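**Folding the chain**
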Amino acid sequence: MEEQKNESTERTSENDNSPKVTGVGGIFFFSENPKEARAWYQENLGIESNEYGSSFESRNISNPEEINTLQWCLFKKSSDYFAPSKKEFMINYRVRNMEALVDKLKANGVTVLDDISTYDYGKFVHILDPEGNKIELWEPK
């Protein structure tokens, strides 16, 4: 019985196309000197990165063929990429069904800061949470 329940749950989640967050796609934060900070992280924690940060790969436990990435990146403190948020960080969430999620967010009165942008590596849009934190949503290809 337990095996059937697990198989059913896995099939449901694989076929589920409901608009929602499916994981963390990135962690971004400000640094006074990103070059020096990247060197510190590499020397002390072994995080090798470049001006775009570092990508960490993981597999989806329900679908081991699926490889996910988490992007870790430092931004110069003077960057306006997190604007209008005044916070020192921004989190990127992986999502599915971006268009439906944005429609849901707008219907719920969430501040959507821009239109969905599409790139070779996926779709992006930015929102604000109730405390003014800018959040980046990413639907990978």
User: Anything to note?
Assistant: The mean pLDDT is 90. Residues 80 and 86 are 10 Å apart (CA to CA).
